[in-house]
Amino acid sequence: MELLPRGPAEFGSARYWERFFRRRGPRPFEWYGTFPELRAVLRKYVRPRDKVLVVGCGNSELSEQMYDVGMCEDIVNIDVSDAVIHQMRERSGNKRPKMSYVLMDMLQMDFPDAHFQVVLDKGTLDAILTDEEEATLAKVDKMFAEISRVLQVGGRYLCVSLAQAHVLKKAVEYFSQEGWVVRIHQVASSGDKQQFVLPVFIYVMTKFKKIPGSAAQILEICPEEQDKPMRMESAERLVAAVKDRQHYALLCSQLSKTPCAEQVSLDLCDKESGRPRYTLHVVDSPLVKPSQDNCFAIFIIPQGRETEWLFGTEEGRRQLAISAGFRRLVTVALHREQHYEGMAGIQAELSGKVMELAPPGLPAQQQVPFLSAGGDIGVRTVQHRDTSPLSGEYVVEDVKGDGTCYFRRLIFLCNRNVVQSEARLCAPLPLPGQKKRRKDKKKPSPAEPPAAIDKSYLCCEHHKAMVAGLCLLGGPDPLPGTSLTVLVVGLGGGSLPLFIHDYFLKAFVSVVEIDPSMLEVATHWFGFSQGDRMQVHISDGLDFVAKMAAEAPSQFDAIMFDVDSKDLTVGMSCPPPAFVEKPFLQKVETILKAEGVFILNLVCRDARLKQSVLATLREVFPLLYVRRIEGEVNEILFCQSSLEGRRNPAELGARARLLEEALRQPGCPWDSSYVLADILQAVKIL
């Protein structure tokens, strides 16, 4: 038997519903939202002594169940279908003497003004508001006006809805403009998603007297997992919050049915502040053989390590899932603005939510393991937080790395997944004459990071490659002569120019930094200092190079660009596009000595743009070497003006070994975790 309408508009037709209920018969029709699901919200707003009007009651059991459990008894049900009113009177009989069924059109009700404390609508608004045509909206306005008329001040209009965007927007705008308090509840699901994937919502519109001239609106949302409402600043934001929850429900439904071909990312927000608390990535691994014990696991990324390749990239997370041996792995990144009560606290907080992301076929009552690197949630200490007019909001934080090492990092919050600068921390050496700590004295807490900067260590792989590029200088002997002049554009935490200053004892380093805040950060938090051989110029790199080209050509042995772009819409985050335009590169070539080297940190995800940059570089610098950084987007380009100095990777490796031996000065330790020769032997000539 065909019971569905020919088109959505028929949902608003009295003739359709009359035909529908005659054909369906007495079987109850619960379109969505059963009483057990709705009960927890309804009992907050329906009191036993309230006079309740149910509009468009149909043959739903909702009124009967509310009556039978004692929620309220004085209930009037109205509908435009004579057939359904007749059915419901027969079904109720004399069992519920205080409840009545009346044939009535809610657009033109016979009740006196302010007659009810509650008007209950289960799906009726959704059935009428099928489109945004002028006639439909006029009908809805009439419906709302009648509901407003029959409700007392302080009364509640409770509307059960799937919250389609145009339906929610209309209801929120109408009643908020009338001065009513608008609150949206998400109804807890029963778990049966066979009929409707989208969650059910209840709009709670509380009537207040409209104050002339007042523009204040009270708009709130109550997610299903909490009772405390969250205040929304506008109707648009409230509609967007509902839409977010609908998208999440659709996502969970899809993930419960099929493996995801691409990694899915979502944020779970703190209920108090609304800020992201957890960032989740769902990773499916079809290469892992299925078994009952390896269906699903949760991996907590230790604080501060979310930027590492293994956790911060799609390929890294894919390898993590394969090595962990689970068909579906959900990685969880922790946010620096939040406080966490250890692994057990996180597990208790997330266990219910992550089960909504479970894969198809997960056995009931299956224990889902929570994993982590090192078995804990890591350590993150924000040492400094500020805002720069040029770089925006930034933080300096200490994090515990893999093992016992601590690192200090500079993060620009506009691009919080990228470490701008990094330095390794080490325990401070005792001052001359200072006694060593006695064994029985209290040791520092393992969660307390050391304070001194380890200047012998370059954390960034691209910085190591840039230092190695200095091997291209000079003739047969790679060591510089009486002096070495280096220009570094982009200070950051200062680790790159500081390393060159400390290990190339004949080097005179000029640093150009556009943001004075970064000089303060480097000095106070990363151990940077100026001196006879180190000078910082607060200037735009473009202006500085142009001025030097006009006043002092052929001045530098090496020029290094390590400067990020603030424009995140361009497919190149380092350097800014203006730094690789031909007229400017010609100025760079002008201030470079004949046998000097221009070293550029290039981070470009746009393949076409990268080819254009390389072509422009070749026009100015005929000799180009490239060193790609494994697991990163960075590529280090070594550019020279003359083809005469061309060397193959083996020659570069030999020069690097000679330079490295000379740089390992007594009393100036060199970290053994990297070797210049290894870096340069991976260089390719473009």
Automatic annotation (TrEMBL):
Single GO molecular function: methyltransferase activity
Domain Methyltransferase residues, every copy: 50-171
Gene name linked to the record: Mettl13
Region (Disordered): 430-450
Naturally occurring in which organism (per UniProt): Upupa epops (Eurasian hoopoe)
The name this protein goes by in its record: eEF1A lysine and N-terminal methyltransferase
Residue ranges of the TM segments: none
Family that this chain belongs to: Belongs to the methyltransferase superfamily.
UniProt entry keywords in alphabetical sequence: Methyltransferase, Multifunctional enzyme, Transferase
A GO biological-process term: methylation
Gene3D superfamilies noted in UniProt: Vaccinia Virus protein VP39
Stretches with biased composition (Basic residues): 434-444
Gene Ontology cellular component annotations, sorted alphabetically: cytoplasm
